[in-house]
TrEMBL record:
<dbReference type="InterPro" id="IPR036986">
    <property type="entry name" value="S4_RNA-bd_sf"/>
</dbReference>
<dbReference type="InterPro" id="IPR050343">
    <property type="entry name" value="RsuA_PseudoU_synthase"/>
</dbReference>
<dbReference type="GO" id="GO:0120159">
    <property type="term" value="F:rRNA pseudouridine synthase activity"/>
</dbReference>
<keyword id="KW-0694">RNA-binding</keyword>
<comment type="similarity">
    <text>Belongs to the pseudouridine synthase RsuA family.</text>
</comment>
<dbReference type="InterPro" id="IPR002942">
    <property type="entry name" value="S4_RNA-bd"/>
</dbReference>
<dbReference type="GO" id="GO:0003723">
    <property type="term" value="F:RNA binding"/>
</dbReference>
<dbReference type="Pfam" id="PF00849">
    <property type="entry name" value="PseudoU_synth_2"/>
</dbReference>
<dbReference type="InterPro" id="IPR018496">
    <property type="entry name" value="PsdUridine_synth_RsuA/RluB_CS"/>
</dbReference>
<dbReference type="GO" id="GO:0000455">
    <property type="term" value="P:enzyme-directed rRNA pseudouridine synthesis"/>
</dbReference>
<dbReference type="Pfam" id="PF01479">
    <property type="entry name" value="S4"/>
</dbReference>
<dbReference type="InterPro" id="IPR020094">
    <property type="entry name" value="TruA/RsuA/RluB/E/F_N"/>
</dbReference>
<dbReference type="InterPro" id="IPR042092">
    <property type="entry name" value="PsdUridine_s_RsuA/RluB/E/F_cat"/>
</dbReference>
<dbReference type="InterPro" id="IPR000748">
    <property type="entry name" value="PsdUridine_synth_RsuA/RluB/E/F"/>
</dbReference>
<protein>
    <recommendedName>
        <fullName>Pseudouridine synthase</fullName>
        <ecNumber>5.4.99.-</ecNumber>
    </recommendedName>
</protein>
<dbReference type="InterPro" id="IPR020103">
    <property type="entry name" value="PsdUridine_synth_cat_dom_sf"/>
</dbReference>
<keyword id="KW-0413">Isomerase</keyword>
Length: 243
């Protein structure tokens, strides 16, 4: 299947389509050894495309996945204790992918996986305010005043206070004295959700990340993953560009 040269370059993460067009017209791109300076050229998987002398290969192409990380899996590409890591689920993916941010060993849920370093760095930066929703089983039943504390910010340590969060109780179990709480934050400090809930007197017994921005786990079970659609990839990039 053929596609426009600038689209192929964008899919490989060389640059945006518009920036790729400028690279083409500047004479920086060769197709099958011939310099291309006009837009509209189409290429397919059999064509050799060079940008500034670098031959684009499959390992250069940018890929994006959602993984439903089980509990007991490390959010890393390797582990010195030989524990299971998130990349163990992607043995058939040729690109060297890695998790965007981290999810605690004992926390399950949505992890975004990619080899797009530029996008990953933006998504992890607190200034872009990417919301992440967690569902926690906590000890005790939070009262309204404690939920308000979460909504206004909780002191995490001597230096840091959490930003305002969205917090609500989803269900309660009076017999077991536990509750299910939903918490939406945009930061990603170490053990933040656990510290916030413990800070209002409700230690976490079980934790799951259900959403990352507009992405969710619909249709996935623990250990499953899927590739993002082109629309989702574009929306992720637009989300950090607008912030």
């Amino acid at each position: 299947m053929s596609e426009r040269l600038q689209k192929m370059m964008a899919n490989f993460g060389v640059a945006s389509r518009r920036a790729s067009e400028k690279m083409i017209t500047a004479g920086r791109v060769r197709v099958n050894g011939k310099k291309v300076t006009e837009l509209g050229v189409k290429v397919n998987g059999e064509d050799a495309v060079e940008v500034d002398g670098h031959l684009l290969t499959q390992s250069d192409s940018k890929v994006y996945f959602i993984l439903y990380k089980p509990r007991g899996v490390i959010s890393a590409v390797k582990d010195d204790k030989n524990r299971k890591v998130v990349t163990d689920y992607f043995t058939d993916v040729s690109q060297r992918i890695y998790p965007v941010g981290r999810l605690d060993y004992d926390t399950s849920g949505l992890v975004l996986m990619t080899n797009d370093g530029q996008l990953a760095n933006k998504l992890m930066h607190p200034k872009y305010h990417v919301n992440k929703t967690y569902v926690a089983k906590v000890k005790g039943i939070p009262e309204n005043k404690e939920l308000e504390q979460l909504r206004h910010g909780v002191q995490l340590d001597k230096k840091h206070k959490s930003s305002p969060a969205k917090a609500k109780v989803l269900s309660i179990d009076k017999k077991k004295e536990t509750a299910i709480v939903s918490l939406t934050i945009h930061e990603g400090r170490y053990h933040q959700v656990k510290k916030m809930l413990e800070g209002v007197g409700h230690p976490v017994q079980k934790l799951k990340r259900e959403t990352y921005g507009f992405l969710n786990l619909d249709g996935l079970t623990s250990g499953d993953f899927r590739e993002l659609t082109n629309q989702e990839i574009a929306a992720l990039k637009k989300m950090v560009e607008k912030s």
